[in-house]
Design a protein that fits this description.
The chain has about 425 residues and is of the alpha/beta class. The chain has 13 helices and 13 strands. Strands 3-2-1-4-5-6-7-8 form an eight-stranded mixed beta sheet, sandwiched between helices. A five-stranded parallel beta sheet has the order 11-10-9-12-13, sandwiched between helices. It is globular.
Length: about 425
């Protein structure tokens, strides 16, 4: 795969990033520095926000979003016909039965297929199970374009490695896997040329299935590790042990992996294990560790809800009860698959005096749900504050309330 830079650079490369969320927007921001790029998203509200240089996810500055090199943001599907290098970053969630939902990926692939020309390149970045890209090529792209992949057009796979809220491990600094299943040196060179604008370094493989597999086990491994710590957390709680002191002792061994318990949310960790489990079951393999870990991490919501409810019942608070932190992890606005948000919404049905605080959260109906941006904006008297997310602001609030005459609950031992 040591492709030379022997493609014709006079033939203009017009990249189109499809899906401008946490994954796609950083890719587009990098590409528009070099190319006349298209940033496509079917959410017109998202497009209008980006045109006004506003990122709802708070990951990019106005300078990052400013258009250069005649690039554009658009929700018009017709603009896809102007591209010859498609990068697909649409969501790949699970359905209510925990089965992979590739609807968005398939629908986008149909649109791309109708716009394909000879020599075009498609790179999928959305997380899928091993073999999914091959399935989409055979049943969607080839079928709808009347072309043959590997001969008329080319598909590569580069699984996303985005960690929301992490300024250190951004897209330009992390190693990126780039799977290119072709011996065509011109195509290899072109793909590498484009991706060098996205990241400083990437790891090349000829196997798309290996890259798909690598992605799902990266996040599944984290899910398993957190599940183990959650089990130890529950055991320590039952035994009335101080887990922080135990971990401090254990971490004195050179090869001990010092992890902490936590609530697993977001779009990746609660989803990717089900992608792996799905394809394993299809091949008559039973991934017991993966399944057990998911059960442990999903059980945390029930456990915490009960612990909080028991405390409220026992103390019979007359004034307001505040849950501080409802996003799925610290210092980000994302509430997808958020356990703290689920706990708040479920308890709110039972306790009418329950309110919430999260200065990062970007939910549309915050006012309706009584979610405040600032502790200073809460005028009612508060009897109990429950901390569920380790936002930087929550650390300061915890210290402040620790000195006041307000009951504090830290069920996850965040502080």
């Amino acid at each position: 795969l040591k492709g030379r830079m022997d493609f014709d650079k006079k033939k203009k490369i017009v990249p189109c990033v499809i899906g401008l969320g946490y994954v796609g927007l950083p890719v587009f921001v990098q590409l528009k520095k070099k190319f006349n790029s298209i940033g496509f998203d079917n959410n017109i509200k998202r497009i209008n926000q980006l045109k006004k240089l506003y990122d709802l996810n708070k990951e990019h500055t106005k300078k990052d979003l400013r258009i250069i090199n005649k690039s554009t943001y658009s929700n018009n599907k017709k603009i896809l016909s102007k591209s010859n290098f498609y990068i697909v970053t649409v969501p790949t969630p699970i359905d209510i039965k925990k089965i992979p939902d590739l609807t968005s990926l398939i629908n986008v692939s149909k649109v791309i297929a109708k716009n394909l020309n000879i020599g075009d390149i498609i790179v999928f970045e959305s997380t899928v199970y091993p073999g999914a890209t091959k399935m989409i090529i055979e049943t969607v792209l080839n079928k709808n374009s009347k072309f043959v992949e590997g001969k008329d057009y080319f598909v590569a796979y580069s699984p996303e490695r985005i960690n929301p809220g992490d300024k250190k491990h951004n897209i330009y600094n992390v190693k990126k896997i780039l799977a290119i299943n072709t011996k065509n040196l011109k195509i290899i060179s072109k793909i590498k040329y484009v991706y060098k604008q996205i990241t400083k370094k990437f790891v090349i493989t000829s196997s798309i299935e290996y890259a798909e597999m690598a992605k799902v086990i990266e996040n599944t491994q984290r899910d398993i590790n957190i599940a183990f710590m959650n089990d130890i957390f529950l055991f320590s709680k039952k035994m009335n042990y101080d887990l922080k002191k135990i971990l401090k002792l254990a971490s004195t061994k050179w090869n001990f992996i010092n992890l902490t318990p936590g609530l697993v949310g977001g779009h990746c960790l609660p989803v990717d294990p089900y992608y792996l489990n799905y394809i394993a079951k299809k091949n008559n393999v039973n991934l017991k560790t993966v399944q057990a870990s998911r059960k442990v991490n999903e059980s945390m919501e029930v456990m915490l809800t009960k612990v909080i409810s028991d405390k409220i019942k026992k103390n019979k608070y007359k004034n307001k009860i505040l849950i501080s932190g409802i996003t799925y992890k610290k210092n980000i606005p994302d509430t997808r698959n958020s356990i703290p948000l689920n706990i708040y919404l479920n308890l709110k049905k039972k306790y009418k005096n329950l309110i919430a605080l999260d200065n990062h959260c970007e939910l549309k109906n915050k006012k309706e749900l009584r979610i405040f941006n600032s502790f200073n904006n809460i005028k009612e008297k508060i009897d109990l504050v429950i901390f569920l997310v380790d936002h930087n602001e929550n650390r300061n609030l915890y210290k402040k309330l620790d000195k006041a005459k307000i009951d504090i609950m830290d069920p996850l031992q965040l502080y």
